[in-house]
C-alpha cells in the first residue's frame, strides 16, 4: 500500500478525522482500503477507468447505488474521479468452498435472482451492456496486437467461441453482476451481500449462473439444482445454452487474466491465475462438446 494511496484516502472530504487506514485484501483490480472515521468504518476503492477491461467508473457508481437501493450492496457514501467510498460491512468474505456448501448455495442463488429482478427499477440513468462473446473477441484482438505470450492459444479459443455462440441462441436480458467470484459474496451472520459492481450491466442471467458455477467449482448436481431453483422450471431446455455460457464465462476470466498480465501494476500473480482458469476452461469445453 503506497503512501500516495493512504494520503489520498485521508484527504477525502467525506471524512472528519480519518484514522487506522489499512489495506483490504482480495482485490485484483483496484487498491482497496479500510478507513476508520469516528465510530464508523468505510471501504475506499481507488481505481480509474480501465479501458482494456471495459471498466468505466460511472457505470460502477450507477450500479452500486442501485444495488444498495435494492438491499443487496453497501451504501455509497462518496465518489469522485478514481474514488468510491462505501459503508463497511461487518461481514466475512466467502471462499469457493463456502459457495459450494449446501447451506449456502441456495441462498446465493436467491441473492443473484433478486439482483437480476430488482436492480433495474432502481436505475436512474443508462448503464452498459456486458456481452461476453464481444468481450472475449476484444480481449483476443488486444492480446494479438500487443504481442501477448499467449497469442498462440487465441485461434483455438476463438474457434471454440463460434460454437458457443451458436449454442447460446436468443437470450433474456437482466442487470447482471458479471463477476461472481467467491470474494464478491459477503455474509454478515444474518444475510448475504453482493459487492464490486465494476463489470455490471445488461446480460443474460445464464452468464451469472455459469460464472457462479465455473468460478467456484460446482459439480453437475449443484449446477442442475441451481438452474432449477433460479428458473423454477426443468433444466434440460436450457442445459446446452448454460454449458455454452459457462465456457464463455471461463474464457472471459482467462482472457481477462492474460490482458492483466500485460497491463496491471497490482502485486498479484496473474500468470498463475491465467493457468488456473485455462485448466477450468479446458475441462468445461470438453463437457460442452459431450452434451
Automatic annotation (TrEMBL):
Top enzyme category: transferase
Entry's Gene Ontology molecular function annotations: choline kinase activity; ethanolamine kinase activity
Taxonomic lineage from the root: Bacteria, Pseudomonadati, Pseudomonadota, Alphaproteobacteria, Rhodobacterales
One Pfam family recorded for the sequence: APH
UniProt keyword annotations, A-Z: Kinase, Transferase
Biological process according to GO: phosphatidylethanolamine biosynthetic process
Domain Aminoglycoside phosphotransferase: 20-241
Organism: Candidatus Rhodobacter oscarellae
GO-annotated cellular components: cytoplasm
Domain of life per record: Bacteria
Protein name: Choline kinase
Assigned EC number: 2.7.1.32
Amino acid at each position: 500500500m503506497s503512501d500516495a494511496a493512504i494520503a489520498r484516502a485521508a484527504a477525502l472530504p467525506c471524512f472528519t478525522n480519518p484514522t487506522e487506514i489499512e489495506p483490504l485484501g482480495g482485490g485484483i483490480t483496484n487498491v482497496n482500503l479500510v478507513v476508520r472515521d469516528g465510530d464508523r468504518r468505510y471501504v475506499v476503492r481507488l481505481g480509474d477507468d480501465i479501458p482494456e477491461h471495459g471498466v468505466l467508473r460511472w457505470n460502477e457508481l450507477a450500479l452500486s447505488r442501485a444495488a444498495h437501493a435494492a438491499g443487496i450492496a453497501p451504501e455509497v457514501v462518496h465518489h469522485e474521479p478514481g474514488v468510491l467510498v462505501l459503508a463497511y460491512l461487518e461481514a466475512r468474505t466467502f471462499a469457493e468452498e463456502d459457495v459450494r456448501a449446501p447451506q449456502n448455495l441456495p441462498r446465493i442463488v436467491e441473492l443473484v435472482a433478486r439482483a437480476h429482478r430488482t436492480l433495474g427499477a432502481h436505475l436512474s440513468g443508462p448503464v452498459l451492456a456486458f456481452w461476453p462473446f464481444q468481450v472475449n473477441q476484444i480481449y483476443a484482438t488486444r492480446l494479438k496486437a500487443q504481442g501477448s505470450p499467449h497469442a498462440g492459444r487465441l485461434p483455438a479459443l476463438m474457434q471454440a467461441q463460434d460454437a458457443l455462440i451458436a449454442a447460446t441462441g436468443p437470450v433474456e436480458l437482466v442487470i447482471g453482476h458479471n463477476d461472481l467470484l467467491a470474494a464478491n459474496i459477503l455474509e454478515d451472520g444474518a444475510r448475504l451481500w453482493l459487492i464490486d459492481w465494476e463489470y455490471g450491466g445488461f446480460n443474460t442471467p445464464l452468464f451469472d449462473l455459469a460464472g457462479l458455477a465455473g468460478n467456484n467449482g460446482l459439480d453437475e448436481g449443484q449446477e442442475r439444482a441451481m438452474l432449477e431453483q433460479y428458473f423454477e422450471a426443468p433444466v434440460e431446455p436450457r442445459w446446452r445454452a448454460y454449458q455454452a455460457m459457462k465456457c464463455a464465462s471461463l474464457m472471459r476470466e482467462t482472457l481477462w487474466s492474460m490482458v492483466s498480465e500485460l497491463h496491471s501494476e497490482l502485486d498479484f500473480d496473474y500468470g498463475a491465475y491465467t493457468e488456473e482458469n485455462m485448466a477450468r476452461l479446458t475441462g468445461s469445453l470438453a463437457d460442452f462438446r459431450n452434451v
